[in-house]
């Protein structure tokens, strides 16, 4: 009986795997004649890019078979309710996860006075809050801000200093609490302006692809959906990482050693310490 049950379970697993399909793609043409693709990499991740620009090889790759839904010449509907539709007469694109989780793309592109590629995505839900952008030091809600996507170390986080909107460690990702995110596949210096629309300008030689990421569970489920795209790094067991103490600077060697002695006296095992500096 155990062998029969095992066989039945194996067959059931194969049936589930067979129900999943390879990524679904629709092709369309923008007003400027550029051919585009919209691809459902998973049921919650949609990639929009110029046609012919495939996914580059990488170590962490989204596995095939994560898309389950239906596709036609001008639309994709995933099993989680994400709808991708194209107007073939205008090349306009819309993506929605339901409710206020949607974006629109007119297909119009341009260049600003500095020669940067520009695009604007419509946000029908008119969000009041948006988070992300990388590591920065002054504000949580980025709505209405102008974000400089450029890795640098800044000093003097004071009101009125333009550098306060520059990322320290950048990621061209904006996350909306309604349960969706937009990620630009771009490593060049750029600018993001989230508002009633999401405007993006980049110094990259070619316009970047972008991803719409849907999270039916809201912010709580976003890490799972995002890492389905970026990959999930394998980590050792948490207990094996031990404890490395770190604080903002030590003025003397005696002060540093005193911290270690205090931890040991209190019974905390310490495997290392970070010798930070006084920056200001």
Please, could you describe this protein's structure?
It is built from 3 helices and 19 strands. It has helices at residues 2-19, 222-230, 253-265, and strands at 24-29, 35-40, 45-50, 69-71, 75-78, 83-87, 92-96, 102-105, 110-111, 117-122, 131-135, 147-149, 169-176, 180-184, 190-194, 197-202, 210-214, 244-246, 272-274. A hairpin with a 5-residue loop joins strand 7 and strand 8. The strands form 4 sheets. Strands 1-2-3-17-14-13-11 form a 7-stranded antiparallel β-sheet, covered by helices on one side. The protein folds into 2 domains: 22-230, Immunoglobulin-like (Sandwich); 238-274, no CATH class. It has 280 residues and is α+β, with helices and mostly antiparallel strands.
From the structure above, extract its key features.
Immunoglobulin-like, 2 domains, 7-stranded antiparallel β-sheet, 5-stranded antiparallel β-sheet
Count of individual beta strands: 19
Mean pLDDT, rounded to whole units?
A: 83
Low-confidence stretches: 1-19, 57-65
Rg, alpha carbons? 23 Å
Number of domains: 2
Strand arrangement across the biggest beta sheet: 1-2-3-17-14-13-11
Distance N to C terminus: 72 Å
- Major sheet details: 7 strands, antiparallel
Helical fraction: 10-25%
What's the tally of helices? 3
**SSE topology string:** HEEEEEEEEEEEEEEEEEHEHE
How much of the sequence lies in strands comes to 25-35%
């Amino acid at each position: 009986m155990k062998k029969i049950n095992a066989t039945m379970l194996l067959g059931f697993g194969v049936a589930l795997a067979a129900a999943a399909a390879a990524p679904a793609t629709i092709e369309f043409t923008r007003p400027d004649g550029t051919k585009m693709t919209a691809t459902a990499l998973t049921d919650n991740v949609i990639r929009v890019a110029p046609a012919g620009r495939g996914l580059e090889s990488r170590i962490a790759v989204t596995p095939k078979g994560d898309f389950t839904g239906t596709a036609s010449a001008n639309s994709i509907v995933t099993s989680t309710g994400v709808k991708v539709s194209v107007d073939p007469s205008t090349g306009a694109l819309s993506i929605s996860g339901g409710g206020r989780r949607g974006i629109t793309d007119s297909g119009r592109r341009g260049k600003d006075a500095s020669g940067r590629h520009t695009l604007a995505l419509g946000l029908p839900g008119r969000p009041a809050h948006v988070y992300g952008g990388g590591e920065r030091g002054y504000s949580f809600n980025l709505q209405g801000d102008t974000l400089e996507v450029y890795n640098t170390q800044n000093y003097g986080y004071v009101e009125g200093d333009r550098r306060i909107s520059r990322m320290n460690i950048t990621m061209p990702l904006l996350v909306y609490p309604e349960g969706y995110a937009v990620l630009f596949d771009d490593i060049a210096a750029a600018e993001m302006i989230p508002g009633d629309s999401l405007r993006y300008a980049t110094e990259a030689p070619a316009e970047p692809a972008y991803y719409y990421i849907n999270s039916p569970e809201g912010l709580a489920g976003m890490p799972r959906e995002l890492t389905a795209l970026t990959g999930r790094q394998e980590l050792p067991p948490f207990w094996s990482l031990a404890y490395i103490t770190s604080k903002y600077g030590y003025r003397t060697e005696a002060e540093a050693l005193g911290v270690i002695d205090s931890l040991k006296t209190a019974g905390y095992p310490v495997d290392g310490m970070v010798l930070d500096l006084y920056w200001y």
